[in-house]
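ok so for the tutorial part 2 we go from a plain amino acid sequence to predicted structure tokens. step 1 is just haveing the sequence, like this:
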Amino acid sequence: MMDIRKWWRDVWARFGPARRLIVIEGDSLPQSMPRRDLVLAREDGEDWCVGMRCPCGCGDIIELLVIAEAKPRWDVRADRENRPTLSPSVWRNTGCRSHFWVRRGRVQWCD
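step 2 — the prediction. this is what the tokens look like for a chain of 111 residues:
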């Protein structure tokens, strides 16, 4: 039997409102993160990191480095409607161990 929480998470990810990209000035994420949207920290025109709450619902904050020198590093871009896309996928190796993509503001779960 399918876990109702997983089913609801998948439905909401597919049909709920798309996530947006919020750009802030500074080299670190804010203390208080939005519930759904992604936050990009940018200082003097240079992108540093992107953060979000884990979409599984565990409440953890995920911080991904986007500076060129970082390893591993992610790329983030936003379309005309400010919907973010991250690459590569996000695979948490601790905590909830979620694995997902963010594409055009939607979470796509990896099975």
